[in-house]
Every structure is written in structure tokens, then in C-alpha cells.
């Protein structure tokens, strides 16, 4: 999985990149069909905000986390993204196991009544 990391009013250092890669390596193993993940870290009014966006099985999934300290904000966002991905995976599984809709069978005596027997 490719991780696109960017910062807004935050310098993205090697330690931040390493921490982000460690946090999302578990998600990459659980959901191998994920191609890329966009991570935006910003700091506004003394709070760090982390926004995560990705595509999974045809739907756009996003999660965000905020905290005064950056690393717990990343952990919070990762936990929310994991929960959202699990929810989407459950929806896809439920769709595969959907029960077929049965149509009402035609009753033989109704068909015979409609026929014109001479």
C-alpha cells in the first residue's frame, strides 16, 4: 500500500513517516486490496488533526482524529479507519450472502381456470 503523507503547518520528519508506516502496516495486511492511503497532518489552534482517505472496494472511506499531541491523533485516526474498513468489509460479505428473493409460483388451478377448455 502506498502512503501519501503531507503536512499543513507541520514539518513531516522521518520519525513521523516511520510512525505512520508502522501504524498502517497492520491495516495493509488486513486489507490487501487497498492501493493507496492519503494522510494529511495539520496543526491549527494548538491541536493536531489527522485526516485519512482511501478507496476500498468501490467506496471512498475517510477518518479523522484530533489531539493536542500528534502521535495520539494518528493512533485515533488509524483506529477509526480500521473500524470503517471492517464495517465496509462486513457490508460486502452481507451482500454476497443475501437470500434470494422468491417469486410466488403460479398455482395450477388458476392457470386452468384462465384456459378456455371446450
From TrEMBL:
Molecular functions (GO terms): ribosomal small subunit binding
CDD domains in the record: RaiA (cd00552)
GO biological process: negative regulation of translational elongation
GO cellular component terms, A-Z: cytosolic small ribosomal subunit
Keyword annotations from UniProtKB, A to Z: Ribonucleoprotein, Ribosomal protein, Translation regulation
Family, similarity comment: Belongs to the HPF/YfiA ribosome-associated protein family. Short HPF subfamily.
NCBIfam families documented for this protein: yfiA
Quaternary context: Associates exclusively with 100S ribosomes, which are dimers of 70S ribosomes.
Protein name, as recorded: Ribosome hibernation promoting factor
